[in-house]
Amino acid sequence: MPRKRRYAGQYGRRLYPSSRIDPGKFGDEFELIDRGDRLVLVPVPDEPLEALRDEARRSEKTADELKESALDATLEEAGRTELEETD
C-alpha cells in the first residue's frame, strides 16, 4: 500500500495532495506558499544550492540581471514600485 503523503502548511494545518502529483518527479517535500488569491505547492529540492546553481547556468541572464529581475518581481507582487530604505 502506498504511503499517504502529507505536507505541513502554515499554522500547523495538513495538506493531503492529490495522487496525481508524481513523487518521482517532484520529490516528497513541498513548500506551501499563500499567494493571497491562491495556494502554490513548490517542490523543495534535495540540494537547494545546487538546484539554484543549475537554474542560473541555464539562464541567459547575468547574475546581476537575475538579481534585478527577482527584486522587480518581488516588488510587483508586494504592490510597490521601489525598495524602501531602512535605517
Verbal overview:
There is one protein chain. The chain has helices at 23-26, 48-58, 63-78, and strands at residues 7-8, 14-15, 30-34, 39-43. The chain is an alpha+beta fold. It has 2 domains: 1-44, no CATH class; 45-87, no CATH class. It is flat and about 45 Å long. It starts with 6 loop residues before the first strand and ends in a 9-residue tail after the last helix. Residues 53-87 are annotated as: Disordered. It comes from Natrinema thermotolerans.
Rg = 17 Å
Query: Helix fraction?
Result: 25-40%
Strand adjacency order, main sheet: 1-2
* Strand and helix order: EEHEEHH
Measure the end-to-end span: 57 Å
Q: What's the number of structural domains?
A: 2
Please tally the helical runs, counting DSSP H or I stretches of 4 or more residues: 3
Any low-confidence stretches, pLDDT <50, length ≥5? none
Tell me the number of strands: 4
Report strand %.
Answer: 15-25%
Global morphology? flat
Q: Please tell me the overall pLDDT.
A: 76
Largest sheet entry:
2 strands, antiparallel
Q: What features would you highlight for this structure?
A:
single chain; 87 residues; alpha+beta; two-stranded antiparallel sheet
Explain briefly what this protein structure is.
With 87 residues, the protein is α+β, with helices and mostly antiparallel strands.
How are the SSEs ordered, and which strands pair?
Layout: E1 7-8, E2 14-15, H1 23-26, E3 30-34, E4 39-43, H2 48-58, H3 63-78
Antiparallel strand pairs: 1-2, 3-4
